[in-house]
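Subject: PWWP domain protein

B.,
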Amino acid sequence: MTTTTTPPSLRDKKSRDNSVPSSSSSNRRRSRSKSTEKSTKRLKAGDDLSEHSEISNDDDSHHPLNVGDLDHLRKVWQPPPKPGADSFCWKCHDAAVDISCNKCIRSFHTTCVKAKIDSSWICTECSSIENILHSSKKSRRNELSVDLLSQLLTFALKRMRFAKGNYTFVMPYEKTNTYKKYIVNPVHFGTLQEKINAKEYHCAEELVNDTKWMLHNAYIISAGNNSKLVQSAKNILKICRQEAIEIETCAECYLNANTRTDWFVDVCSQPHLLLWAKLKGFPYWPAKAMSMGQTSVINVRFFGEHDRAFVSAKDCFLYSEQDPNTQTGKKAARELAGCIKEVEEHIEKIRNKIGGFQYAPFKTPFDPNDVMRQLEEMMPGVQEFMRQQQVLVTKTPLQFKIYRTADNNMSIVQKASSTPDLVLAQQQQQQQQSIQDTSSNLNAQSILSNNFDFSQHLLTNHTANKQQQDDDWLCIQKELNLINTTSSTNDN
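Prediction pasted inline below.
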């Protein structure tokens, strides 16, 4: 496969986050990477992957497979425990398996599973998906529509395509019937994209589980050797896991990061608590608390270069106006000053969107067991703001659409229902503003001032009851007729 250099449009983290750090920043961040899980490069919004892709689906001339691999598979292959199941162990990738999952086609050695096996046993991959989809503790932040999830997973797949050392995953087993006997679930970027387009995924972890098949198949084809193909699959899976974590942590941040350059200063529908967080060997740094980990460890993103890290709660203070650092070097102080400017821009957006912001008292310890109280004290009214945002997202979509006809009258049509998500909330607000603007142009402000609130209520809070919908329709149609009549009178 012909290798290419990283395309110019595949921006690094510095250009992605719209910051220009100094050379000292680069050195400091490189050393911090031992403690910080870096976010990797992202594509610019709207980039066409086909223009930059390192992957050639037509060039198999340098594929790392040979006839010896096929001979090895012929020697070790044995029939699976159940028809259609895998003949190789999901854990160790060797043949001679003796059990299969009751829900999927994965197979195992009983010695590799190390669990009690019965006829209803399901593998850890299937059980983890069930836990995610049916968990009662699932955060509202992670409740995504299938449409929005598919959009986010498309961004993740684009990132995966640029994994280091990426080999084409159009395998010979897809082109010959011989390999189909050994590879029961051939997975490559094309199959993943097809499932995303078909909206078959209901959580990001399902994409991770499918990507694991790429690594499993690479091990089988490579006869268990740590080949270049295996290393490539590991890199792809690593990126997939990172993207899935970001999606599950805050889908809104993930969407904005892939579509906007100023995403980090924006305010999410469920705002993030602001902290002074400290990594060992570095000063306290302003950060957002993204999520809580285990044993009082917080997943944070630092202002500035937007690095990700897991920081102990005891090393965090609530964000105060005064810097908790007792001493910093001149270069670090300049960096910190630039980051604080970004924090202030974010705080100003909080004030505009939520209504207020209160700096925490100096060196107030962060309490991981009382996040909501601390968030309310820092952003007064935030809980009511979050409830309003939740109503916008979960409310039944508008069933009626008002538009202007060719004869300059207003008419109404019934809309098909759509799946509510984060984008829909913005569309609803735009529709409401559009109605107001159109009404103003028709010189019917006096009528609308008395009736617009009622019309808006009917538009957004109609019930599923058919009779009620008919009543709503008649009421709105009467109002529109009155508006059109008034408009005609004014024109005359």
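The radius of gyration is 28 Å.

T.
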